[in-house]
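QUALITY CONTROL LOG
STEP: pairwise intake check
CHECKER ROLE: data steward
CRITERIA: each record must contain a sequence immediately followed by its structure tokens, with no blank fields

ENTRY 1 OF 2
RESULT FIELD BELOW
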Amino acid sequence: MKTILAIQQLDRQIRQLTKEVDKCPASVDFKNYKKIMQEGKARFASLEAQANEIIKNFYSSSNKLSSHKGDYDIIRKRNTQEMDRDSVSSLLSDANNLVGEVSEENRRVEDLVRRSEEIVRKSADLSNKLTEAKKRSAVIKEKIEQKRQEVAPKIAEIEAKIKELEPSVKDQEKYKKYKDLKANGIFPVYVNLEDNFCGGCKVELPLNFIEKLKVSKMLPCEHCARIIMLDK
């Protein structure tokens, strides 16, 4: 078990070096630019949906205006001299309604045009921002790679030490458990009991668990699945 804990300590050093890369300014900047790119794609999707809606409404208004033109031609061709007063009044009412409807559709078309121009402007601005972000991200990636190359020899050295220790591990079953849990993102794998708290997730353990641990000396935490050892 002593050898496994030594390997775990070496793995901890590797994780610390990896975190140096993840937390360096370039990595933080890259995450921000990645967020900008993701938000930009979502924004483009939204603008595209708005544009499709505008096109649909524009065709609808165009069809209405075409229909109104036909109505206008019918009204224009009617001979008012052959109509009585009520018919003329009805005709004027129809004409006024038609003028109002045409004016309303014209306003809608003008509004659609304004919205279209706004979408084009926003799309151009967004495209410029994304292009700049993409250029900047390439520079940032290079800096991250430089940092990764900086810590790579140290990581390789530690990994070599782990390889040297592995043949001397006596309990291969415990070591396999260690590697499986670590592969699943659980680390550290083996932790001590700290004042009735799990040394990993820091959750207080029930008394019946503590009693079982006193007997078995080693049990998986009910909360985080780390292996709790009774620290003598």
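ENTRY 2 OF 2
RESULT FIELD BELOW
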Amino acid sequence: MHEILRMIIEFMTVGHIMTIIYVLNFIIALFVIFVDRKSPTATMAWVMILFIVPVVGLVFYVVFSQNIARLKIDKISPDEMRINTYIREEQIRQLNSVHLANYSAILDKWKTMVMLNLDYANSYLTANEKVEIIDDGRLKFERMFEDIRNARESVEVCYFIIKNDNVGRKLIKLLTMKAQEGVQVRLLMDAAGSKSITPRMLNAFKAAGGEYAYYFKPKFRYMNLRINYRNHRKIVVIDHKIGYVGGFNVAKEYVGLKKKFGYWRDTHIRLIGDAVITLNLRFLLDWRYASGKKVDFVETFKNHPITESDGDIPIQIVSSGPNSPRQEIKLGMMKMITGATESIMIQTPYLVPDDAMMESLLMAAKSGVDVRIMIPCMPDHPFVYRTTLLNAGMLLEEGAKVYIYENGFLHAKTLCVDGEVCTVGSANFDNRSFKLNFETNAFIYDEDVTKRMEKFFERDLKYCREYTLEDRKNISIKEKFLESISRLLTEIL
């Protein structure tokens, strides 16, 4: 056998190898066109890269283009489906029969958006008592760690990134302590984002009674070929009463302790109310898939019904992922943008939306809406940042305003419209979040919360410089070329 392999290797030339690669790329191209059913733009991008740079194209396809749409990630039982259908249809009936202006003028105005998220994204409308906006990493962890210390029943934690540093280890130590006290503790981590947290690090946590799981765990720890399709959510639910969702992960850079980024500007929210129940259901769906353990949603619905809160802040928790073609968070954001009549404020580390979202922003700007977008001053992904600047330039030409945050790294993911409705969560304003990652956002229909979110935006303007058309005129030919190449790659990466 070894002799045969040696003869084959000696016989093979570079020409033979390239022929094999081209044949493989041709087969992959046919698969992309006729089976994979990607968008036309993404399909053309893949075909071009497969044949223009065949070796790179083959590697990129293996690493970036797994299709998981056929995986039954959010599979639910018939009993769970009946409960879900009943709640959704009952809410739709109430929305159609009740004059919402008696409850909330804002909710009445944005009724069609509520219906979109309810019927299309399967997102229940909930009443809530409190929404606390947290814009600083140190404050976020202080508040969250204190809530975890006070937990009496359960702590459920899901993060894209937990690192083996002082912040990550502090969280694991605290969760271990709560498990020792008899609190049910579940820890869900993305296998790629949290790869530095090894099972050995969690021995004490597991021995104390804690449970953990990795989302999309590879068969071989250091051979994770799935770079796309990550669980990018950041969800914490404590005692079914307190919930956290937003942009912060768990590592020292998120509290401003990494020199490369400096101060880390992000946004998280702390919730009290029925939205926590729907946030918890999202966690449990992910937990059931990743851990393979049984979760009784029927019992969960009975013990924690979505009817208890006396709050007056309407919220919908909307999730999306590559296992569904619907892009629920993107459509919710587009509905906000196309419904804007006065102002749109966006904070995002990446401005890489698809054509439909760009057209929505361009239309808003051309309609006289005050469109303001804030982006970071430094890249954590260079080719994505180049595309961000290219898209910023396109929006500037139509009257939008763009600001570059210079007080560290801007990682906040917020959208505010007309001082009435806002969204915050894990989803960036880019194709990766809309199509390739699992994300969760809170859509909030409340003037007070939205105004508070806008005040954070306006405060951050003090640390920004305006990006102008003059800046665009002064970029070099080399940068223009790199921007164009980067824009092409964002369709497939």
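INTAKE CHECK: passed for both entries
DESCRIPTIVE NOTE, ENTRY 2: The CA atoms of residues 125 and 316 lie 5 Å apart.
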